[in-house]
Design goal:
Layout (H helix, E strand, L loop, with lengths): L7 E2 L13 E2 L2 E2 L5 E6 L2 E6 L2 H10 L11 H6 L13 H14 L2 H6 L1 H17 L4 E3 H18 L6 H14 L5 H4 L4 H6 L2 H21 L15 H11 L6 H32 L1 H15 L14 H13 L9 E2 L4 E3 L2 E3 L4 E4 L1 H4 L44 H18 E4 L13 E3 L3 E3 L4 E6 L6
Parallel strand pairs: 5-10
Antiparallel strand pairs: 1-9, 2-3, 4-5, 6-14, 7-10, 8-9, 11-14, 12-13
Helix pairs in contact: 5-6, 5-16, 6-12, 7-10, 11-12, 12-14, 12-16
The protein binds protoporphyrin IX containing FE (HEM).
Length: about 475
């Protein structure tokens, strides 16, 4: 492992490399499971092995519970007062409680089933109109998920929904990947020279205006009734008004943006990858369609409760999240108190990256790691987090994603609709193996080239 001047080796705790030779998929793991990088001004550790992931996300979880300051979120997320980017402490704990108990509880996620069912059915109706011709699924998938999240966040209260979605799309394009400004935090001038700051400020201003309008048009306290389901924003405004939590209007806006930002790109990327893998693996595709069509027996409209026992559909989503984590390095952490790792003294402010991508493809845990085999999860009880930290699509520890249930529902339900109502083909008679799987790093890892398919409506009366 490379060390820099900041790293003191404690000789009494020698760093012992793992005895086996972990690999990245079929490639050897060239730089070892615990690596130190000097990225600009930032001393950074990269963890690429389940054993070390467990160490940093359990034993040292509290030491690594901070997030580094990033230009984008400082501007867009109201000086990092959202859940994802706020520093570890009382304020974050309060937000986390709100998110877990109120916004993203299993009950709340289930209560929004009608939104997912509606929007997925709207997608089916749109796709039926283009049946037989190539459609740009990437775009349609993003728009469907964005509408689902928008309705959950704002209810019917956002007249500028389309503009809001377009601005967030613009923001996602601008973020992600390597940003030179973030690795030289003291050189504020770089932020302006790269032109990113003014662009982010303009995006923030436009989003803020829409959020202010929605809040000012909010009709006052409206709790859940038989014909009204509180939107996420309404829950936040209720909590703010009750005084139970100290929340400013900016805090409410920051958390609302988090729900939107966290919920759209990750789920739409996962759905796109699931469809891409199914096109490349026609036997898996067929099996999934048979499972659904036999279970639903020609039903005209799918309800979420119909999907409860569809094991194969669930295995497909898990396997997609293993191979295509939307956030392959999770979200970065920052060391907030000195600790020792593998015999090395880790100073405060060291950045930590957990390479979930390498971990989810570690051949010591996953035979044939580069092959799409949903069945592997039948014999593997791993849920959203591996018992040995070998499966980390949602991270782990205190700052683990609080929305795994919602994230999975937002993938499973649209995927079930696509599988049930349509047979799929690539345009121009191309074969599954011709489909490229080139990735691009934006806010999450997406397909570089948009996914176009020809969809043929399936005759439901056959079942
Ligand atoms: C397939 C979908 C999703 C995936 C794969 C995913 C993945 C992740 C990951 C890897 C992290 C970082 C965990 C860590 O640092 O250890 C995270 C954090 C977070 N995610 Fe998700 N996520 C998904 C969907 C969502 C949705 C739908 C929302 C909200 C509506 C959301 C909200 C958040 C928040 C608020 C955090 C920050 C938690 C904290 O710092 O305390 N995510 N997510």
């Amino acid at each position: 492992m490379a060390t820099s001047n900041n790293w003191t080796h404690a000789s009494s705790h020698r760093f012992t490399p793992t005895p086996r030779s972990p690999r990245f998929g079929s490639e050897p793991l060239k730089y070892g499971p615990l690596m130190h990088l000097q990225l600009g001004e930032l001393s950074t550790i990269v963890i690429s092995d389940p054993r070390w992931a467990k160490e940093v996300l359990t034993t040292h979880d509290i030491a690594f519970a901070d997030r580094p300051v990033v230009l984008t979120t400082e501007i867009v997320a109201y000086q990092n007062t959202d859940v994802v980017w706020s520093p570890y402490g009382d304020y974050w704990r309060q937000l986390r409680k709100i998110v877990t108990l109120e916004l993203l509880s299993v009950k709340k996620v289930k209560s929004f089933h009608y939104i997912r069912e509606d929007e997925c059915y709207n997608l089916v109706a749109t796709l039926r109109k283009s049946a037989g011709s190539p459609v740009n699924l990437s775009q349609m998938i993003f728009d469907t998920i964005a509408k689902i999240v928008c309705r959950a966040a704002f209810g019917k209260g956002c007249k500028d929904q389309e503009e809001f979605i377009d601005i967030v799309k613009e923001l996602f394009k601008l973020t992600g990947g390597f940003d030179v400004a973030d690795v030289f935090p003291s050189k504020k001038i770089i932020h302006t020279l790269t032109g990113k700051r003014p662009k982010l400020e303009s995006i923030h201003k436009r989003l803020d205006k829409i959020l202010s309008d929605v809040i000012s048009e909010h009709p006052g306290e409206r709790s859940n009734t038989a014909d009204h389901q509180e939107s996420l924003l309404e829950v936040l405004l209720r909590l703010q008004a009750s005084g139970e939590f100290k929340l400013t209007t900016k805090n409410v806006k920051a958390v609302t943006l988090d729900m939107f930002g966290g919920g759209t790109d990750t789920s739409s990327a996962t759905l796109e990858w699931a469809i891409s893998e199914l096109i490349k693996n026609p036997k898996v595709l067929k099996k999934a369609q048979v499972e659904l069509r036999e279970a639903l027996k020609g039903k005209e409209r799918i309800l979420e409760t119909d999907l409860q026992d569809l094991d194969y559909l669930k295995l497909i989503v898990r396997e997609t999240l293993r191979m295509h984590l939307p956030l392959p390095l999770l979200f970065p952490r920052e060391c907030r108190e000195p600790c020792k790792l593998g015999g090395y003294d880790i100073p405060v402010k060291t950045k930590l990256l957990v390479n979930g991508w390498a971990i989810n493809r570690d051949p010591a845990y996953w035979p044939n790691p580069d092959s799409f085999i949903p069945e592997r999860f039948r014999s593997n009880p791993t849920n959203v987090m591996g018992s040995e930290y070998e499966y980390l699509p949602f991270g782990a520890g205190r700052r683990m994603c609080p929305a795994a249930v919602l994230g999975i529902a937002n993938v499973e339900v649209p995927l079930a609709h696509m599988l049930y109502y349509f047979d799929w083909e690539l345009p121009n008679g191309a074969k599954g193996e011709d489909l490229d799987m080139v990735e691009v790093f934006g806010a999450s890892v997406q397909r570089k080239n948009e996914l176009h398919l020809v969809l043929k409506p399936y005759n439901l009366a056959q079942n």
